Amino acid sequence: MRHVSLIPAMIAGVLTLSACAESGDQTVERAFQDVNVVDESNLNDVMLTVADPNEAVAYFTRATKGSPGRIDLERGLAASLVRAKRNTEGVSAWTKVTAMPGATNEDRVQLADALIRTNEWTKAKTTLDSIPPTYETFQRYRLEAMVADANKQWKKSDSFYEIAVGLTTAPAGVMNNWGYSKLTRGDYSEAERLFGEAIRLDDSLFTAKNNLVLARGAQRNYSMPVIPMTQTERAQLLHTMALAAVKQGDTETAKGLLRDAIATHPQHFDEAVRSLKALDAA
């Protein structure tokens, strides 16, 4: 009888071991799944930041086909298309994202950005208007300012630029945009101030340096601004100043600036040479 009573115990032991083995297999499988999720998340981040944009497009195109309906992968594809300057495709991709369950206000901001890149200003404004005013981000207000500029709504534009500057720790780029807005309106002194602020915050921003020279030239101030610049940049800025002088009708001044540009450039400055020859011929 003692032998018979051992059988249920043995069966129970086998079942317990089987259950433990099963539980262990499931745990290992879940662990591998977790690792795969982490690895995929890291790879997605890499593709969105440091990878070649077209490689990222190819990666996310494959990923969305393999896992249809995943909004994170669709976002990755849309962002990669914009990074690759395939803006028309980017608009389509962001439109798809904003129509999916789980779409956010940030997705709508990104759609508006893509629409602006394709010069679809009216659609961009409609998209921004669909976002609640309580959603306040730097990117949202930067785009709002650009749309207001396009519509020549200058008071709105200034207000949006001011808010955007306060919402970022790196406002140089938006100050340059704000300055260019002032430049197009003919407010040259204010444009000059804003370009100067942009350069003070980021002295590598050559676009702001070039715009600063344009603003000074528009005021017939042909002296070079005291800002950090390389020898090549100085030559290029002298060339820009010369073109501004031509626009003002100050041809002789322009010739002198072009000669300075040619002499300053560490290499042959073909563009300035052509401009000087054109002025001499005229």
UniProtKB/TrEMBL annotation:
<keyword id="KW-0732">Signal</keyword>
<feature type="repeat" description="TPR">
    <location>
        <begin position="172"/>
        <end position="205"/>
    </location>
</feature>
<protein>
    <recommendedName>
        <fullName>Tetratricopeptide repeat protein</fullName>
    </recommendedName>
</protein>
<dbReference type="InterPro" id="IPR011990">
    <property type="entry name" value="TPR-like_helical_dom_sf"/>
</dbReference>
<dbReference type="Pfam" id="PF13174">
    <property type="entry name" value="TPR_6"/>
</dbReference>
<keyword id="KW-0802">TPR repeat</keyword>
<feature type="signal peptide">
    <location>
        <begin position="1"/>
        <end position="21"/>
    </location>
</feature>
<dbReference type="InterPro" id="IPR019734">
    <property type="entry name" value="TPR_rpt"/>
</dbReference>
